[in-house]
């Protein structure tokens, strides 16, 4: 009985540490961004960080890490793109993309966690998750920035497709390799 209690406690501690480390990872990569002059939506490394979290700790711990990251940003820590944070960022025109990250984490995360060695399914799930994030963020941007849907697509999606495809490819290459090296840790 004592071994079960110890292993359960040990597992809980490992989960808390994993979630904390992945939250920190998101907080470090999330602010790294490039603002383009023609759009209010910056190119950031947050989506890539989400993909890597999924490969490192699975979708459930990644989701907990992402929600922690969003909470930290919402209370004002400068963890969002361009070292921004606060309620105004989350509820502003680009806040829909922040909430859209949750869809990436759930959709991509579930598939990657279950089928990590199937590169086609993993790529497809990352594309699908990102597309739903785009859709949610674009609708939010159009509403809060008083833009047409077409203008919001040109401001919040079109300029980002190629960069996000590169993020997907890099995650597909290095994610499984890193997972194999650290799977015993988490």
Core attributes:
74% helix; 8 helices; 2 strands; 186 residues; mainly alpha; two-stranded antiparallel sheet; Arp2/3 complex 21 kDa subunit ARPC3; globular
Rg measurement, Å: 17 Å
CATH class category label:
Mainly Alpha
Flag low-confidence runs: none
The backbone outline, from C-alpha atoms, is: globular
Instruction: Note the total helix count.
Output: 8
Class from helix and strand fractions: mainly alpha
The total strand number stands at 2
CATH fold label: Arp2/3 complex 21 kDa subunit ARPC3
Mean pLDDT metric: 92
- Kindly, what is the distance between the CA atoms of the first and last residues, rounded to a whole number of angstroms? 23 Å
Integer count of domains: 1
The CATH architecture comes to: Orthogonal Bundle
Largest beta sheet: strand ordering: 1-2
């Amino acid at each position: 009985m004592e071994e079960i209690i110890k292993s359960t406690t040990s597992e809980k501690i490992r989960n808390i540490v994993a979630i904390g480390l992945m939250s920190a990872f998101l907080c470090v990569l999330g602010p790294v961004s490039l603002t383009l002059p023609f759009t209010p939506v910056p190119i950031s490394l947050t989506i890539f960080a989400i993909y890597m979290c999924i490969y490192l700790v699975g979708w459930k711990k990644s989701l907990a890490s992402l929600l922690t990251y969003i909470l930290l940003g919402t209370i004002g820590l400068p963890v969002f793109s361009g070292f921004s944070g606060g309620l105004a960022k989350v509820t502003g025109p680009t806040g829909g993309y922040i909430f859209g990250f949750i869809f990436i984490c759930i959709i991509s995360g579930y598939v990657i966690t279950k089928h990590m060695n199937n590169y086609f399914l993993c790529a497809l799930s990352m594309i699908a998750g990102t597309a739903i994030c785009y859709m949610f963020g674009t609708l939010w941007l159009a509403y809060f920035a008083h833009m047409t849907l077409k203008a919001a697509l040109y401001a919040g999606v079109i300029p980002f497709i190629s960069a996000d495809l590169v993020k997907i490819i890099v995650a597909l290459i290095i994610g499984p390799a890193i997972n194999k090296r650290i799977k015993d840790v988490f």
